């Protein structure tokens, strides 16, 4: 369990180290262990036997149980318009779950690249790909704020519950814009807010690594996408995320929990698409 809190003004590099440390631990846990915690946050709520955010992949083509750690908050491949032969980039690829689903969509003639900056996740993903005998899926180490890949390379970018963990989201969206082909687009699932989280949740390291306290207001999130140059930005799916009292009580007094619930603050999972050029359709 992480033994510190997020301080106001905490440096971006320290936040990244927090995420690396936490997801390094998560890499070697089972899906059941991760789903019984705050989006994989060990020790945060380990008596709860259900998933807060993740959606089921089990009926999707390409699904591989060994790669599913239960860390997502949507199904970005469902709305990504991936075609045979596409070159797809998955940001924050973890153990390879979305990459293997995307691989079933691009076929043998396509290519899938997973980007992650946690060594343990990369090792697990590469091990999974080797067992599946895929020669058109690769995993690369890198920071989403400085993607170590060439310009105008990818047809589609996907990401699942990762960009909310990135300190500078506009920089991440700008990097996404750079590496997409001129006709390219993205589809990401992520956590956003309406209203402001209580300070206790904002400062909880477990909740940051668990995809909640790193989230920003929905309009700010969408504005960041547009500032990076994306066009025709559209939310394809939105759902409410309800954090159970059994988790909230780890951070807040009961009175404060009730105030939080009555405050109008909402936590949402959104799946959003955007295009590098205006008026391009992905289906």
Keywords:
31% helix; seven-stranded mixed beta sheet; 283 residues; alpha/beta; single chain; disordered N terminus; 10 helices; Rossmann fold
Plain-language structure description:
This protein is an alpha/beta fold. The protein has one domain: 3-Layer(aba) Sandwich (Rossmann fold), CATH 3.40.50. It is built from ten helices and seven strands. The chain has helices spanning about 10-25, 30-35, 95-105, 120-130, 170-180, 200, 205-210, 220-225, 245-250, 255-260; strands at about 85-90, 110-115, 135-140, 155-160, 180-195, 230-240, 265-275. The chain has a seven-stranded mixed beta sheet. The longest helix has 15 residues, at about 10-25. The N and C termini lie far apart (about 45 Å). The model is unreliable at about 1-10 and about 35-50 (pLDDT under 50).
